[in-house]
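notes to self, project folder thing:

trying the whole complex as one job this time. last attempt i did each chain seperately and stitching them together was a nightmare. two parts in total, labels are on each line so i dont mix them up again. if this works i'll redo the older ones the same way
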Amino acid sequence: MKPTLFRCIAGALLPGLTVSVCLHAQEFKVFDRSVQVHGFATQGFAYTNNNNFLTMNTTNGSPAFTDGALNFSMAINDKLRVGAQAYARKVGQLDDFRPELDWAYGDYRFARWFGVRAGQVKTAIGLYNDTQDAEFLYTWAMLPQGTYPLDLRSSMIAHIGGDVYGQIRMKKAGRLDYTAYAGLRTFDDRGGYYIFSSDLGMPITSLSGRAEGWDLRWTTPIKGLILGSSWTNMTQTRDGVYNMPGVFPPNTLYKCAAAPQRTAVGYGDYQKGKWDFSGEYRATDYWLNIYTPVFGSTFTWNGGNENWFLTSTYLAAKWLSVGVYHSNYHVDSPANPANIASNHVYDEVGAVRFDINRFWIVKAEGHFMDGYGDVYSTQGFYERSNPGGFKRRTDMLVLRTSVNF
Amino acid sequence: MKHLRFILITAALILCVSWQAQAAGVKVIANPSVKTDSISTGDLRSVFLEDSDSLAGSHVEPVLAKGGPAHEAFLKDYLGKSDPALQAFYRSLVFTGKGSMPKALASDADVVAYVARTKGAIGYVSSTASTDGVKTLEVK
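result (full assembly):
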């Protein structure tokens, strides 16, 4: 572990120092309109004492934890903005640095209280869904994985469609920011859904669906306090071919449809001086009908779950912040109720963030996890990375550095 | 007794003046094209947090200082955010496509020069800075 860790740290810090010194001048003119270019790159290292996590070889220490993005945006006129962002990552066996379109849309604001966005838009759910990739915004090297799982990122992060949004001032009652959206879901065939289904013997040949919902955020009259709620309904149509020798004949097809998949969210954030406290709760009602045409039979699986987290951070100095959080993920109907480790993932986390300068950040974080989730519901623990089975407890060290401009 | 009264009044005046000087550590300036001489604290916050890009019918663009006492006073008095929190806020807009990074300049003189030549620009400088070429907005 030590030589790998040393090489990873050196490999990340030296480019970080070089890049942060060079970061400047990300604005230019096109037809007298200012175009801004921004981007980020992160490099992480993860080590676990038990269980390999997120398909990384973490029990030996893994630096296969890299992502980055590049975007441009431009105000066409006083009301219309356009922009796009490309994103690429490699996390263990998830994705392989292939760039993908992260968001690209036009945004027309008719008035403060009403605007529209159309294109591929990040989905507003909870506190951090649309900003979860921008780890430099947070004290944490990893957001609570029970709520913002890195491996399942693509399933809820964006939709191809449109939003209506706006802000309503309520005088002494504060302010309401609303977003309502509808569109097609974006899935990543190199992401957690596909890999997990393949490990289960149900590789996916096609996956599509819609998402519609809303988010309402109340900036309350109490200074520093925001409360919010989101709701989303997602459809899912999945086709595949069983890969279970001895159970199904070769080339046996299956079809899945969510019936339904809905998530209700409540959240809050309170900032007071150098302290910040946040929390989020999600309840997902998720039923999946699995139809095997050759047998004419349908099996209904209950994937319902609840998850929540509470965080606390303290800005000790302009360049130093520390924080802790508890993340709680619980499956409603575990496949094996007798195995108490397989119906939940609890995570206790402590983190420290160093802002080397305006562009360059280094973080160190410890995770103390109990449980590994349900056999039919991935929560970062994959059979292909843990062929000998799972242990109940996983302690993990995460180091992560990023540059952004 | 007469002297004591004089001392007390003088002390009170000194305290009053110094309090005013501290509270007025920053002043808000705008390009002459901005069609108003005053701005509410709510509108000021809306402009700098990119909730609104118009004021009194004029398109406006916020301009920040990179640091310094006027910057800290402006953030504390009008935006209620620390500098790290404000930078994180702007970055959350930039990396979701919902806004842009405002211009940030190193000194009061740079801010005044930029605001003077940029239609719709609104910025802030220390209360003692020269404001040739720009107008000062009264914050209500």
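what i see at first glance: The beta strands of chain B are 26-30, 38-39, 54-55, 58-59, 61-65, 103-105, 121-126, 135-139.
need to look closer tmrw
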